[in-house]
Amino acid sequence: MRGDYHTHSIFDDGKNTLLEMAEAAEEKGLLYFGFSGHASQSFDESFCIKRNRFREYLREARDIQALFEQEGRRTEILVGVEQDLFSEPARGLDYTIGSVHFLKQEGDYLCIDESPEKLEWIVSEYFGGNWYRMTDAYFDLVAKLPEKTGCDIIGHFDLVTKFNEGNRFFDETDPRYLRRAGEVLEYLVQQSMVLEVNTGAMARGYRNTPYPREGLLGLLYVLGGEIMINSDAHSREGICFGFDEACQAARSAGFTCTNLLTRNGFARIGLGCFEEPRLRALMWT
Q1: Is the separation of the CB atoms in 197 and 210 below 8 Å?
Q2: From the CA atom positions of the chain, what is the Rg in Å?
Q3: Digit-coded pLDDT (tens) for 97-121
Q4: Which domains does the chain have, with CATH numbers?
Q5: Angle 263-268-274 from CA coordinates, rounded to 5°
Q6: Residue 255 near residue 228, CB atoms below 8 Å
Q7: In degrees rounded to 5, what are phi and psi of residue 229?
């Protein structure tokens, strides 16, 4: 594949600098690479860009973007952010990934992807042990992402399944789960959202398949949705992780194309790996 746009650095919860990430992307032969640090938020700064460092993040990212352009490097850099529904608005960006990492119940912010034990406690304490009440609450928030964040891309649509490999906590084929997930998926397609096929949980050993799961990815195709493939990399080694599997999952769902993001907007390309001249001939904006 020729692009990866969901990545993190030491500015938030990643392991490498922005420059190290960009150079690793170039080494992998990517035509496009995006920075997408977690946007700042007042209630929990443990994994996001600190509020007093956000301008520094933007400045350093733009400097690297300019450097790559001035030196005529193969990889075009884009500067973005991953904005949670409850994060502070961020401006001056090339793109925004909208994601839900927290539920808000009784005034408390509840992180759903911290650990299996934490998620189990949340369901017990706030949802009476009913996992489908919790998943409904999650998807209700995902539906608010386009309006609240103004995002271009929906990140890891079914993140709520991160710790549910093998249906550990709930049945992902149960109508009680799929009904609300399907309704929100249809709404996002109506809003012309691009949804990522995200391999981050695979890289970290939580899942064997990318987000969204097979059935939802198939429904997204039937609904006429658009996809792009992202790694959610938190280190240079994670860039493009599992892209072959992600492409296969997309093909199995019916997709023949994915999307790249350029300075001029989204560009649809076939799921195969193209030589650069052929790739550019296929682009549309």
Answers
A1: yes
A2: 18
A3: 999 999 999 999 999 999 999 999 9
A4: 84-282 (3.20.20.140)
A5: 100
A6: no
A7: -110, 125
